[in-house]
Amino acid sequence: MLTLRFFARLREALGPQESWPFEEGLTVGRLRDALIARGGAHAEVLGRQALLRCARNQQMCAEDTPLADGDEVAFFPPVTGG
């Protein structure tokens, strides 16, 4: 299971966190695409038109970063406040 965390405007739209089932071969980008495919608020704030940063286990990462079971993945705008 993955823990997803959202910050700033994403948190306002989606809440602070949610869980996601882990699948072999999953990357941060594929996870984002799966969340977008849910539609609704997920598609609106995570859509490819939105410039977002991501982190895996509190380390900044690229969307091609592979994920492992138990990872925490965070999504946030490029600039967030305290």
UniProtKB/TrEMBL annotation:
<dbReference type="InterPro" id="IPR012675">
    <property type="entry name" value="Beta-grasp_dom_sf"/>
</dbReference>
<dbReference type="InterPro" id="IPR003749">
    <property type="entry name" value="ThiS/MoaD-like"/>
</dbReference>
<keyword id="KW-0547">Nucleotide-binding</keyword>
<dbReference type="Pfam" id="PF02597">
    <property type="entry name" value="ThiS"/>
</dbReference>
<dbReference type="GO" id="GO:1990133">
    <property type="term" value="C:molybdopterin adenylyltransferase complex"/>
</dbReference>
<comment type="similarity">
    <text>Belongs to the MoaD family.</text>
</comment>
<dbReference type="GO" id="GO:0000166">
    <property type="term" value="F:nucleotide binding"/>
</dbReference>
<dbReference type="InterPro" id="IPR044672">
    <property type="entry name" value="MOCS2A"/>
</dbReference>
<dbReference type="InterPro" id="IPR016155">
    <property type="entry name" value="Mopterin_synth/thiamin_S_b"/>
</dbReference>
<protein>
    <recommendedName>
        <fullName>Molybdopterin synthase sulfur carrier subunit</fullName>
    </recommendedName>
</protein>
<dbReference type="GO" id="GO:0006777">
    <property type="term" value="P:Mo-molybdopterin cofactor biosynthetic process"/>
</dbReference>
